[in-house]
Amino acid sequence: MNSKVESWKSKLDEVCESLKGSTSIDLTKMNELESQIMDVSNFMLSNEENLNPEALKKEQLKFRTYTDDIFMNSHLYKRARTWPRGYAGDYETLEKIYHATPVKNEGVGMYLDNYFITRELARGVRERKRVLSKVLISEFEKREKKQKVLNIACGSSREIFDIGKKMNNYEADFTFLDYDKDAVNYSRLLLFNEGIDVRNFKFMKYNALNLVSETETEAEFGKKDIIYSAGLFDYIKTDVLIKMISSLYNLLEDGGVLIAPFKDKENYNTFDYHYLVDWSYFYQRTIDEVKDILVEATNTEVEIINTKSPAINFFLIRKK
Ligand SMILES: C[S@@+](CC[C@H](N)C(=O)[O-])C[C@H]1O[C@@H](n2cnc3c(N)ncnc32)[C@H](O)[C@@H]1O
Q: What is the pLDDT of residues 55-87, one digit of tens each?
């Protein structure tokens, strides 16, 4: 291992030693840990220019292996390094991020969990959920009852849980899709337990990549008034994404809306996701790049809503 990284790691070991046995977070110690972890970020990122994609992946893996003895103490780092559901960003991980407190209740693991849930994107994901609930309520309030809604890659559907029993006033005809069967079942249970009437809600295990086909998508789902997806579009490569958005735009009734939050690559640190964990499969896009994709796919205006987190913005496309 490079000597700069070795020296960084021995300082990190010292900081972590001082955290052993803690049962609550001391904010001064938390800041010390955060500064020490971040201290190697610029160095790792600056080396990227000299590496081809394969060599870069190897470097990132080597970094993780070298730091496993520290980071595997954390529930969330362990999860995001080992992918127990077969991929990063599964609904169980998202649920822990929404919970916004460490999963481990002592020592280094607790501190590292806290570091994980306070990264820009973790904060952004919580803000995305808040804004999504608000945007959905605003759409439901100004529309007739019985809107046809499609939630793609629903995960736990926390934004609907947060709206709570008020959902019942809207009598929505709701379809929830996710390719993880456990996620859709979890969603249904969560909403049912909250007193939301799920009798008119469909929960389907479905691969969203099939949505690229306009004719198949319309045959399968019929027209929709509100279509949204949080946390999937960032993972889809541009040519496929253009087809998918175009197909979803076609699926909208006149007056319908497509709600699509995207990450903004200028406002999060890739070191957190490419080195500290293996969560690098989302595409790095700017606001303008996302807008260009959406305009190319729909040939219509795109409204952008900035959230209180710069890491994630909302893009709304209305069918006139
Ligand atoms: C980052 S989570 C977001 C979940 C939820 N929308 C939220 O905001 O909490 C991404 C979700 O996408 C699902 N997913 C990933 N690829 C998918 C695909 N090709 N088709 C359907 N769902 C997919 C995962 O199972 C996971 O539940």
A: 999 999 999 999 999 999 999 999 999 999 999
pTM greater than 0.85: yes
Alpha carbon separation from 317 to 70, 202, 221, 256 (Å, rounded) = 45, 24, 19, 8
- pLDDT-above-70 percentage for the chain: 100
Predicted pLDDT at 107: 98
**Which of 178, 24, 149 is closest to 90 using CA atoms?**
178
Helix (H, G, I), strand (E, B) or coil at 246: helix
Residue 104 Cα to ligand 1 middle (Å): 25
Q: Which domains does the chain show, CATH number per domain?
A: 3-118 (no CATH), 127-269+280-318 (3.40.50.150)
In the reported structure, the alpha carbon of residue 229 is separated from the centroid of ligand 1 by a whole-number distance in angstroms of 8
Q: Is 207 in the pocket of ligand 1 (CB under 6 A)?
A: yes
227, 280 in Cβ contact below 8 A? no
